[in-house]
Amino acid sequence: RLRLVFEDHAFELGEAKHVHLTVSIGFSYFPFNPSQSENFGWEHVLDIADSALYLAKNSGRNAWFGLGPGSEPFTPDAMPRMHQSLERCIQDQRLTVLSSRPFPGIHIED
User: Fold this and answer.
1) Phi, psi (rounded to 5 degrees) for 62
2) Per-residue pLDDT at 106 exceeds 90
3) Which residues have a Cβ under 8 Å from the Cβ of 80 and sit 6 or more positions away?
4) 78 φψ region: left (φ > 0), alpha (ψ -120 to 50), beta (else)
5) Cβ atoms of 26 and 51 closer than 8 Å
6) What is the per-residue burial (b if ≥16 Cβ within 10 Å, else e) of 3-32?
7) Alpha-carbon dihedral sign for residues 64, 68, 74, 76
8) What is the distance between the alpha carbons of residues 29 and 15, in angstroms, rounded to a whole number?
9) Which residues does 30 contact at the CB level (< 8 Å), separation at least 6?
10) Rounded to an integer, what distance in angstroms lies between the CA atom of residue 105 and that of residue 85?
11) Three-state DSSP class for residue 12
12) What is the pLDDT of residues 13-70, one digit of tens each?
């Protein structure tokens, strides 16, 4: 809903000028994985959410993407691999994606 509020709102710039804006949103969960909450600090979760934001921006903007734990183990040690190949972490089911729109090459959870 937040994304739609921005999309539908005309922001007044003064002198009878208005502009319409869109937003890209990336998020994750805190705790990231409740069964491993001691392993993922807020810094890790912020880093994961930042990766989700880049997915939103690279999908054409005006979208939201979230990353959560997948069915396969994902630990803080895997963070460098996430930065090298986020898509691979998703394909390997180490991360789950929630999104407002499909992203080519990535399976989106319903």
Assistant:
1) 55, 50
2) no
3) none
4) alpha
5) yes
6) beeeeeeeeeeeeeeeeeeeebbbbbbebb
7) positive
8) 42
9) 42, 45
10) 12
11) strand
12) 888 888 877 888 999 999 998 888 888 889 999 999 999 999 998 888 888 999 999 9
| Residue entry with tokens 């994902």 | 74
Tokens of 42: 């807020």
Tokens 């090298």 sit at which residue? 84
What percent of the chain is helix, strand and coil (3-state, nearest 5)? 40, 25, 40
Please report the sign of the dihedral spanned by the C-alpha atoms of residue 96, residue 100, residue 105, residue 109.
Answer: positive
Helix (H, G, I), strand (E, B) or coil at 99: strand
Location of structure tokens 């990336």: 26
Residue with tokens 């997915």: 55
Q: Which two tokens stand for residue 109?
A: 């959870």
